[in-house]
Amino acid sequence: MGRLLLVLAGCLQTLTFSPYNVWWLAPISIALVLMTCLKLDPRGLFRAGWFFGLGLFGSGASWIYVSISEYGNTSAFLAVLMTAAFAAFLALFPALMFWAWGKLAKTERWRRLVIFPGVWILGDWVRGWVLTGFPWLYLGTAQVDGPLAGWAPIGGVHGVSFLILATTTALYASLPWFAKRQWLVASGLGFAALLPWLLGPLALNSISWTTIGKEPLKVVAVQGNIPQMIKWDPEFLRHQIDSYIDLTGPYWDADLILWPETAIPIPHTQAGPVFERITARLGEQSALITGIPWFGYSTEIEDFTFHNSIMAMGNGNGIYHKQKLVPFGEYVPLQQLLRGMIGFFDLPMSSFTPGGSPQSPLVADGLRIMPFICYEIAYPQFVAFNAHNTDLLLTISNDGWFGNSIGPLQHMEIARMRALETGRYMVRGTNNGLTAIIDNHGQIDTSIPRFEPGVLRGEVYPATGATPFMQAGSWPVITLSIILVVFFRARIIPKPKQQQLVPRA
Questions:
Q1: pLDDT digits 0-9 by tens, 492-504
Q2: Could you tell me if 447 and 408 are in contact, meaning their C-beta atoms sit under 8 angstroms apart?
Q3: Residues with a known catalytic role
């Protein structure tokens, strides 16, 4: 029964994210974890964490099945096994986190409750960088539409997650005091639990941490809806380019035109004729930014290589090479062993090299625009660091790899959280949706339907200044979590051995 409750708790967290958006299930999920796990020993907690993770990642990251099965030339049976293995592997992160929770707190109930939020946040933080990281399904992301949204520009997504964990734990801790009619302690814990949820909508949501300019930039984002099965087929290259040029036709005079990730599906060294067609049509004051593979000599690896890149042309300049690559999608770990085993390990353009750091923003119409390609937008601290001294954020993606699954909708929600954390407008251009303009509060200003060719038209406004999260990143909440763990962990002090008296000769 306990294991089923833990799997349920993980599944409930998936329901807090898009497209379900039931954010209030997050505290219920955490309460189920506490109710099930508080009395378990470390070994039992490891198993509990794994079952919780299986529920969370098995439901929340199930979209990986689409890319493995439909586009990886893999049988449905094998794709199911690989998706299950992926979820089982990710479940090891909460398993280890729960085990550490038991080891650090031992058996004391109050100690377990105090350090629980800190251990959880440290577990999330580790998951965000080990093996390039999987910074997905962070508990706080769903609060972009919830009462705690106002805390995101202050503490980022980890800070919001901490508040969910701490307030739920405080409320759970108050229950025995209510049962004992110890009203002072019980009401104090209850008030502390409710306060952050009240402060968000009553006070923090109205604060503007950045200054938004008054002169808008007219933006056009083109959604080609190119089928994934033909995207890298040379026979359809001209069709793809023609599609984007035709869709852009009435809008060549816009201030900024955005094409999505690898909209031009050939290396930039071979795209000279395509560039000529574009520049011949662009207005004098117009800039076009597009995703394109880049090929050349890399000083990072001292060899010729491919980068997944984005570049500006016309009334804009600059090129950016993607720094955070997707394992198996853009590079293959242990490729000497895995290449050729199954089709999934030989996906088109899966031999990219990450770009160096730091990189300069693109410039369009005199504005500094920081681009992020696909998966990069999921890294909160990475985005916040690179957003400094920029006017606008931009992200491009090709979510066609995940079909009509929940993955692209979660991806959109993550992008909204990044806009909220940095107090900046964001333009999001994708191949098949969701293409949208997100305002500085993380709300969708305008968007176009998925799974059809289309053109988004709208306005964005440059921002100056920095939010508290941009200035400090996740370090305050990470530091607070470490302090909770270090100062409230159980200290086992061995008893000194009794000194035996030896009689003098």
A1: 655 555 555 444 4
A2: no
A3: 261, 322, 374
